[in-house]
Structures are given as C-alpha cells and as structure tokens.
C-alpha cells in the first residue's frame, strides 16, 4: 500500500489488517476497568467510610497503576507478553476480591486497591508495541491515532458498566465486573497469534531503561504537563455544574469533551506521521483549545467549547507515542510506552489536586490552570526537538 492510499484510507487501512480487530477489541475490553474501577471503588468504599477516605482509596489504586505500569512493561520487554499479562491480571483480580470482602475496613480495602492497581495489565503498552508488526509501516501512525481515539470509549463506557453492575448486584458487583472484564480482555488479547509470537529485543539494559534517552525523558515531562491540563478539567467542571445548580451536568460535559477527542483521533488517522518537530505545534494547538473555556459561558456554549478542547489530545498523544517508538533504546519500547501513560496519570492527578483550591477561588481561575500548564507542555515538547539524542545502549545477549 502506498503512503498516499494509506493516508486516504486512514482507520480503514488499519482495521483491514489480520488480527487488528481482535487485539483492538480485546484491549478495549481489558482496559475497561481504567474507566470503571475508580467509580466502583468509590461507590463501594462510600458505603462504609467517609468521602475523604473513599477518595484516598481511589488515589491508592491510581498510584498502584502508576507504579506497576513501567515495572510490568519492563518485564514484558525482557520476556514475553502472555505470562506478564496473565500474572498481572490474576494479581489485580485478587486485589478486587480483597476489597469486596472488607467493607468498613479501610486499611484492608487500601491493600486490595493497591494490588488491583499494581496488577493492572499493561495492555495499552503491549498493544502499542505490537502495531509495527500488525500494520504496514506507513499506517503505524494511523493505528496509534485510532487506538488513542477509541480509548475515549473506555472513559465513557466504564462508568456506565459500573453503574449497571451496582444497580443489579450491589456495590461489590462493580468491583467484580471490573475484574471480569479485565480477565476476559486479557484472555482474548493473548489468543491472537501476533501477541504470542511477539518477542522483545534481547539487550543489556541500563537501570534507567528507556529514560536513559534524554529526548524521551524530556518528552515524558511534557506529557506530565499535558496530563495536568486534562486532569484539572473534571474538577473545575464540577464547580461549574454546581454553580449552574445541577451537579449531574459534569458527566454530560465530560462526555462532550471525550466525544471531541474521539472525533479528533479519528480525523488524525488520516494525517501523515510527521517528525519530532510536530510535537510543539500539536502541543500549542492543544493548549489553545483550553483558552476559550475561560469564558465560562452557558451550558450549550460550554458543551461546544469542551468538544473543541478535546479534539487535539489524541493527535498530541499519537505524536508522542510515534516519537517514543523512535527515541526508545532497543528493547525498551513497551516500558517507554508505559512511562508515558504513567506520566499522564501522575500529571492528571496533580492537575486535579491543584484545580480544587483554584476553582474554590473562582470558576475562571480554575479554568486558567489548563492553558498555563499546557504552555509548559509546549516548552517541554520544543525542548524534545532540540535536546541532543542520547546514544542508545548497544544490543547484547543477556
């Protein structure tokens, strides 16, 4: 397939490849707990502890994911995908069960939440490491964009799955649903021949792993700032919705932003890959999307502005993953992708924490955080272009 025809076909060129529908669907199912588990933990814990404690328990789960992702990804790079995916999914399932059996016991719930987070299978990183083997070289960027766009479905569908499970089976059912979806997704993902056949590059690894590459490290810092911008918005929107007299507006407004991201990602599947110099440009467009939110207009106009603010996130992340694949030293691609996801999660948590006090001071003050930290993301992405490349570790047998 020529580059021109690949660009014209976009997502269709990716979906026509063997195994792609299977691994993409299985990955979506297995990653559904990313959108479902925080709410499931919150609803379960809230039955017996205060909202402050319940929120802290969700933070423990999130921290567990942030720590576990690069560790599990490094294990994948050194070995194979199936053993790590099966083992981590089993550990995570045990964590969910521990939580479900400990109502009113925050320390035990915290232990279970930590295990559930630590064991979250690195499906996202594993899939992105597979794309070069699954699709033609001129459609790899389209595969990244499609994957990132469809990820928005997780954050819309995950909470709905939790609410449905809780409505049918009670608070613990949300936890069991998360564990089951995760296990089913992993089993289906590993059933793909491409997953079983994938092997990491056998090299001598520096203790810093992919972060030894300076340009990659700088880019990861930029992702932290981008994550902070995104993470601040739900908190500010909660304040906006409360000021409008209807807290339930928050969910609809966030869904609008997710819809914008879905559209942006699907459109970007038709773009050319581009090089590192595209990173600061996309970061600037990403930052610009948050500036109109400072107007804090009525609900209808805010919905439209939120759709626009979501459009540039998938293109930015697609460019980040494409360049991570280029910059990561041999044998560290999966871990590099995991560090990007961890950076985004950490940034999102920091953005949410900072947005609370700012929103208390005023809705517009809260909305100001996103474009400000996005400016720092632009600076980091620009530095990624100009920082000298570190020499990758030379391959050698372990």
Reported for the largest beta sheet, the result is: none
Share in β-strands: under 5%
CATH class bucket of the largest domain: Mainly Alpha
What's the SSE pattern? HHHHHHHHHHHHHHHHHH
Tell me the number of strands: 0
Q: Tally the helices.
A: 18
CATH superfamily of the largest domain: MFS general substrate transporter like domains
Shape: globular
Judging by the overall fold, what is the CATH architecture of the largest domain? Up-down Bundle
Helical content class: over 70%
Low-confidence parts lasting 5 or more residues at pLDDT below 50?
1-8, 388-398
**What is Rg?**
20 Å
Briefly note the CATH topology name of the largest domain: Growth Hormone, Chain: A
How many distinct folded domains? 2
Mean pLDDT: 84
Tell me the span between the first and last alpha carbons: 37 Å
SS content category: mainly alpha
Written account of the structure:
The protein is an all-alpha fold and 398 residues long. The chain has 2 domains: 1-144 and 153-200, Up-down Bundle (Growth Hormone, Chain: A); 203-386, Up-down Bundle (Growth Hormone, Chain: A), CATH 1.20.1250.20. Helices cover 77% and strands 0% of the residues. It is built from 18 helices and no strands. The chain is globular, with a radius of gyration of 20 Å. 55% of the residues are buried.
Quick rundown:
77% of the residues lie in helices and 0% in strands. With 398 residues, it is mainly α.
């Amino acid at each position: 397939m020529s580059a021109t025809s690949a660009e014209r076909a976009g997502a269709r060129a990716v979906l026509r490849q063997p195994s792609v529908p299977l691994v993409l669907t299985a990955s979506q199912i297995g990653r559904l707990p990313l959108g479902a588990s925080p709410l499931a933990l919150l609803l379960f814990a809230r039955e017996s502890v205060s909202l402050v404690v319940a929120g802290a328990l969700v933070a423990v789960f999130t921290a567990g994911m942030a720590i576990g992702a690069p560790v599990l990804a490094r294990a994948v790079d050194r070995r194979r995908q199936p053993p790590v995916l099966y083992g981590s999914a089993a550990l995570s399932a045990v964590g969910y069960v521990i939580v479900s059996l400990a109502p009113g016991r925050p320390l035990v719930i915290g232990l279970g939440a930590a295990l559930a987070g630590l064991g979250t299978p690195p499906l996202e990183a594993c899939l992105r490491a597979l794309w070069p083997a699954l699709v033609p070289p001129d459609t790899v960027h389209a595969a990244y964009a499609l994957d990132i766009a469809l990820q928005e479905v997780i954050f819309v569908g995950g909470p709905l799955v939790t609410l449905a499970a809780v409505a049918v089976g009670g608070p613990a059912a949300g936890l069991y649903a998360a564990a089951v979806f995760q296990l089913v997704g992993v089993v289906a993902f590993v059933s793909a021949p491409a997953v079983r056949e994938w092997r990491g590059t056998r090299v001598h690894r520096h203790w810093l792993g992919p972060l030894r590459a300076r340009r990659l490290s700088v880019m990861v810092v930029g992702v932290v700032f981008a994550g902070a911008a995104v993470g601040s918005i739900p908190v500010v929107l909660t304040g906006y919705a409360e000021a409008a007299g209807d807290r339930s507006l928050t969910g609809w407004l966030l869904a609008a932003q997710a819809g914008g991201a879905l559209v942006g990602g699907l459109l970007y599947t038709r773009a050319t890959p581009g090089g590192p110099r595209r990173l600061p440009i996309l970061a600037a467009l990403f930052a610009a999307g948050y500036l109109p939110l400072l107007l804090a207009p009525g609900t209808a106009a805010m919905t439209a502005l939120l759709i626009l603010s979501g459009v540039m996130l998938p293109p930015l992340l697609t460019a980040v993953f494409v360049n991570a694949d280029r910059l990561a030293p041999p044998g560290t691609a999966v871990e590099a992708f995991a560090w990007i996801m961890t950076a985004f999660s950490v940034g999102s948590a920091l953005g949410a924490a900072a947005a609370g006090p700012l929103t208390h001071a005023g809705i517009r003050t809260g909305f100001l955080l996103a474009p400000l930290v996005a400016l720092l993301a632009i600076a980091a992405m620009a530095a990624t272009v100009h920082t000298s490349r570190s020499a990758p570790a030379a391959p050698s047998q372990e």
